[in-house]
Amino acid sequence: YDDPPDAPWRRRVESKIRRAVEWGFPERVRPYRTGFTTYDISWYAGTLDVVVMILPGPSPPAAKLLSLQDLKRFRQLIGDMLDELEDKEQLYVTRNHQIVVSSLPLGAERRLLCCRKDFNLFAGSECTFMFDRQASAVLNSLSEETAALLLEECAETVAAARRSLLPHEKALLSEDLALEKSEAAAKAKTLRELRAAVAASARHRVRQARDGAQGDSEATGGGDIGEAGGESVASFLRRKGEILQGHLLGSPNPSVMALATGGRVCYVSHEHVKKVRRNHLQRGLVRR
Question: Where do the segments described as Disordered lie (predicted)?
């Protein structure tokens, strides 16, 4: 689990998975396309998540639907390919990772973010987060110094994800993800956007706190809106339960996701995240 996401053995496994999804497995003497391709391969602690999409363009065979049966078939052939890779190259993936194959949401469901690539492409968006337990139990708030370091790491990861998009992946997005030519300039631009998203989350929290205080006041016949507006982040999270409104900041590594709520930078383990959904179809980055 400690190897970096760009470790050579991970890259080798990813290339073999992409080949298997696009051309099938075992390989034929005269290979032909399956009509599908991979959108993302996300490494998590103990899980390898492969997101499959329909291959764009008129290349035969023309796949028009990605069914549940197709996903089961891909799960089987990827497992067979990894077993062969284990025998021939001693890359023990299936011993340490559960293989999950899913499809890329389309249409209105594209607001649902399904993988680490999405978490980085749409960093800065206002989102609704659903956790497997109370937000106060899974979210970890950071000091200003540590938050600044995490934002730097997120900016680097987000910029790299946006720069590495393939043409058919860019065609799926309605947002303009154009970045500066140099890596340093792209990272600086992304960092400004993420900092603006953190600031926007503070304004969003005040609005939520006032709405919540008004509801409590109506229910109990009392309450001070001013006190609710100035409450601590911990108190605010305890009231939110398992669903939280905030701003996505990206996924800097396979272990955690970063987000902003109440003007504070927090992180949460991927294993506690059930769903992340953009509140608006447009990316909605806050710009200065």
Answer: 205-227
Residues 31 and 57 in one domain: yes
User: Given pLDDT bands bounded at 50, 70 and 90, which one contains residue 208?
Assistant: low
What sign for the dihedral angle of Cα 149, 151, 156, 157? positive
Please classify residue 93 by burial: count the beta carbons closer than 10 Å to its beta carbon, then call 0-12 exposed, 13-18 middle and 19+ buried.
Answer: buried
CA–centroid distance for 262 within its chain? 21
d(CA 179, CA 200): 22
The per-residue pLDDT for range 7-28, each reduced to its tens digit, is 899 999 999 999 999 999 988 8
Angle between helices 144-163 and 183-220 (to 10 degrees): 120
The two three-digit tokens of residue 240, written as one number: 């939110």
Of 59, 78, 104, the residue that ends a domain is 104
Structural domain includes residue 284: no
Host domain of residue 180: 111-278
- What are the residues facing 52 on neighbouring strands? 38, 103
Of 250, 241, 284, which Cα lies nearest the Cα of 126? 284
| Interatomic CA distance for residues 107 and 197, integer angstroms | 25
> Would 143 be classed as within a structural domain?
yes
pTM (2 d.p.): 0.81
Residues 165 and 273 in one domain: yes
